[in-house]
C-alpha cells in the first residue's frame, strides 16, 4: 500500500504506525495521530480523515505523511475515520501546499483551508438534510436500522449535525452511516456557515417502463390513443425527443417537462397521461454544468501574425518553462491561447486557464465554451461551494481536462498539467490579500507548472514590470505582438484639460467639452461609450462647508463614502453605515455637501447631460448577484445600453464591436497614489481601458480628463511606448531599492490598543535587525489607513537582498521571532500579518 514517495519508513519504533495530518487550522505543524491496525491496509497519503482536535472538535484533515515515529510532546490519539477510499489530494498538491506555506510565511493548514472547498471539509459543525429527491417508499436501497434512525429523525427535524447523529446512534463518529446515506441519495451534507444547499431540481417526464419492455404494449397504446388526438400528439412528440426505438436506455432519463410543454401540449394533457400511467413524472437533481448551451463551434484561422507568434511561443517552450506574450489590446491573444490549449489537450495533458476576475470570465468563457464544450470546467468566486466541489470532483475524475478559473483554481487536484495560461498576468486581483495564504496566483502558477513540468504562458497588453524584467533577463521567453487583429487601429487619444475648460466656463457637471462632444457623436451614430472612474458610490466624502468637518467611520481611519442609493454613508473597509447627517456634528451648520465623484454621481450627471441615452453602471454595488455581471454585459452586447459607467471592472478584457468612445473622468487620481507602483498601474489601467475602444473597423477615441496634460506619463501612454516607460521607471526602482531588484516583505502589526501595537512593532524591528543578512528595514510606521475595524496598524517594510538562500533564511527567522514575541504576555494578542511580495 505504501508505494507513496512521501512515506517515510526510516525509523521503526515500537507502537505501530502514525499519520501526520494536515488540519485546516493556523498551527505551525502537522498533528500526529495513531493509525489503527484495521486502517493500515487502506491508508494513503492525500486521503481525508476525521480526527479529534482539542477537547470537543472533530475536523477533517489530510494525511500528509505516514511513519513509525511516535510524537514526543503528546500521546497520539487514534484517527476517527477515513473519509476516502481514494486520495482527494495528490502528492503534487501536498508539495505545492508545502511550498506555498514556506514561501508566503503561513501555516500549511491555512493553505489547506484555502485549497479545499468547504464541502470537502466536514467538521463537528457540518450538517445533513434530507435529499429533496428522496422518497422513502420508492427508494431502491434497503436501509439498515441505524440509517433508518437518522432518516426518521430527519422527518421531523430539518437538519442534524454530525455530532447529533453520533449522539443519536451512540457512536463516536457517525460518518460511515452518513456516507452510506449520501451514497443512497437519501441525505445531503451542507456546511452550517454557508447557506443550505438548494440543489437544482428539474421536473422530468418519461414513458412508463412497461411500454419499453414490451413493444406490443406500446402498439396497444397507440391504438388506444388513436381517438385522443392531443394525447397521441404528445406521445409522438415525446418519441421524437427520446428515440426509444433506437435507444431504449434513453427513456430512463426522460425529458425536462418544461421542454415537453414548450412543444405546444397543454399541462392538462400531460397531467391526464401521467394519471393514467402512460407517463411518469419524477424529479431529478441536475448538475450545474449539464445543459450549458454550446453553439456551433466557430472555425477560426489564425492570421499570419498570430501564427508566427504561436510558433515563437512553441520555440521558446523548447528551452524555457515560462513565456511572456506581450500583445497589445485587441491583438488576438485569445485565439492563440485556444490553439495551444487544443494541442495540449490532444496530447492528453490537463490545462489550467487563469483569469483575474469574474468580470472577465463571462466573455472569454463563452468563447472557450464554443470550442471545448463539456470538457471545460469553470471555477469562479461567485460559485457556491457545491459548484466548487463539483469542479473539484470533475478534475479528479477526468471529466474536466480544462479548467478556466480565478486565482483559487490553482488548488484543484490536477495530476498532469501540460500548460497553464495566466491571462492579463499584470492584474492585481491575482494577489490574495486576506486571509493567509497571501499568494500571488501568477507566481504560484509558475511554481505549480514547475512541479508538473508544465509550460506556463503569461499574457498581457501591459505586462507587470516583474514579468517583463524576467523576460528581458532571459528567464522567460518573450513574444511581442505590436498590431491589432484585422485592420483595427489603436484609438486616438485626447488629453482634455479640466482646468482650462473650467476657466472658459466649459466644464459642465464635471465633464469637459471634448468628452461631451465625443459622447454625443457616438450616440448620434448608434455607437457605444464606456466611462471609467475608479470610485464607487456617489461621493467619496461629505463635508461641512462652514468648518470643513468630514464624517469618518467609527471603526476605521477613513472618511465615509456617500451612497445615494439608500441615502447613507458607508465605510468601504468595514461596512459600517450611517444616515447622511442633517447638521454638522462639529459646528451645527446645515451646509453639508458631497464632494468628489463616484460612479453613482457620474451616472446621474450623464443622464442629465444626455437625457435620451440609456445609461447603466457596473461596479461592486450593481453586480453583487451571481449573474449581475453577465446580465449587464449581455445587455451591453445586445445594444440595450448606450453608455456604461464603471469602476476598474469596465477596463478589462471587454470586447464589444460598437464601443468607439472611452472616457476617463479623473485620470490624475490614478497617478497620485502613494506607492512606488503608481506609475506602472496608471499605465496599465489607462492603456487597458483605452483598449476597449475601436476594436473593429472604426477607429475609437479615448478622452483623458486631466489637470496636467503635460505630465510625461500621458505621452508615454498615448504613444504606447511601454518599453521606454518601463526603462525609466526601472531606473528609479533600482536607485531606491524596490522590487524586482530586492525582495519585499511587509509586516503589519495590529492591535486594538495603539500603544501595544506600536511597541510590538518596534520590538519586532529590533529583533529583525539582528538577523544577519543584507537588508533594509523601514518603519515601523503608522499605516496609510492607521486603523481598520478598530485595530491600529503599524507597518514594517523589509527589503531583502535577493541572492540565493537569503530570503528563505530571513523568512524562517522572521517566523521564529514572531512566535517568540507572541510568547511574551504583553504581545500575545497582537496580530502579525506577514505579506511576502506585497501588492
Ligand atoms: N484569427 C482570428 N479570426 C477571426 N477573428 C479574430 C481572430 N483573432 C482575433 N479575432 C478577433 O479580434 C478581436 C480581438 O481579439 P482578442 O480579444 O483575442 O484580443 P486580445 O489580444 O485578447 O485583447 P485584450 O488584451 O484587449 O483583451 C476579437 O473580437 C476576436 O474575436
Ligand atoms: Zn470602517
TrEMBL record:
Keyword list, A-Z: ATP-binding, DNA replication, DNA-binding, Helicase, Hydrolase, Isomerase, Metal-binding, Nucleotide-binding, Primosome, Zinc
Domain Helicase ATP-binding: 314-481
GO biological process, one term: double-strand break repair
PROSITE patterns reported in the protein's UniProt record: HELICASE_ATP_BIND_1 (PS51192), HELICASE_CTER (PS51194)
Any GO MF annotation of the entry: hydrolase activity
Keyword Translocase: no
Highest taxon above the source species: Bacteria
Binding site residues for Zn(2+) 2: 553, 556, 571, 574
Its EC number(s): 5.6.2.4
GO cellular component: primosome complex
Binding-site residues for Zn(2+) 1, renumbered to this chain: 544, 547, 584, 587
Cofactor note: Binds 2 zinc ions per subunit.
UniProt-listed InterPro entries: DEAD/DEAH_box_helicase_dom, Helicase_ATP-bd, Helicase_C-like, P-loop_NTPase, PriA, PriA_3primeBD, PriA_3primeBD_sf, PriA_C
Catalytic reaction list: Couples ATP hydrolysis with the unwinding of duplex DNA by translocating in the 3'-5' direction; ATP + H2O = ADP + phosphate + H(+)
Cofactor: Zn(2+)
SUPFAM superfamilies hit by this protein: P-loop containing nucleoside triphosphate hydrolases
Residue stretches making up the Helicase C-terminal domain: 579-738
Family named by the database record: Belongs to the helicase family. PriA subfamily.
Function: Initiates the restart of stalled replication forks, which reloads the replicative helicase on sites other than the origin of replication. Recognizes and binds to abandoned replication forks and remodels them to uncover a helicase loading site. Promotes assembly of the primosome at these replication forks.
Subunit (UniProt): Component of the replication restart primosome.
Name of protein: Replication restart protein PriA
Source organism: Litoribacter ruber
Gene name in the database record: priA
